[in-house]
Amino acid sequence: MRRKITTPFREFNEKLRESCGINLKEMAKKLNITDSFLCTIEKGVKPVPIEYIDKISQEFSLTKVETKILARSVFETNRYVIIDANDELWQKALKYKVDGYDK
Q1: Is 90 a member of any domain?
Q2: What is the count of structural domains for the chain?
Q3: Longest distance between any two alpha carbons in the chain, whole Å
Q4: 3-state SS string over 6-42?
């Protein structure tokens, strides 16, 4: 039996999809990415691109609180990825000021 690989980002997306009544393929289409890529980043096989915080937030009209929860799930999923602190996207991500991840 295959074990489901879960990450905080995947858990967030599954709840979001459930509340919107859509599946993974439909979410990927809304985000203009392939369903296989969405599945790959949800499993943590590849890091979640930081710009997806804005992309998901805007596409699904998330509140500020929901966007902070999404940002936290992205950072927790990516926690083992080495990030260049001078990177423009990383600087943009800091604007979310997610507790524990904005230092």
Answers
A1: yes
A2: 1
A3: 43
A4: CCHHHHHHHHHHHHHCCCHHHHHHHHCCCHHHHHHHH
Which parts of the chain sit beneath pLDDT 50?
82, 102-103
103 belongs to a structural domain: no
How far apart CA 50 and CA 62 sit, in angstroms, is 16
Cα–Cα distance for residue pair 23/21, rounded to 1 Å: 7
pLDDT given for residue 6 in this prediction:
82
Burial (Cβ within 10 Å: 0-12, 13-18, ≥19) of residue 10? buried
- Is 0.85 topped by the overall pTM? no
Residue 42 to residue 93: CA distance in whole angstroms? 18
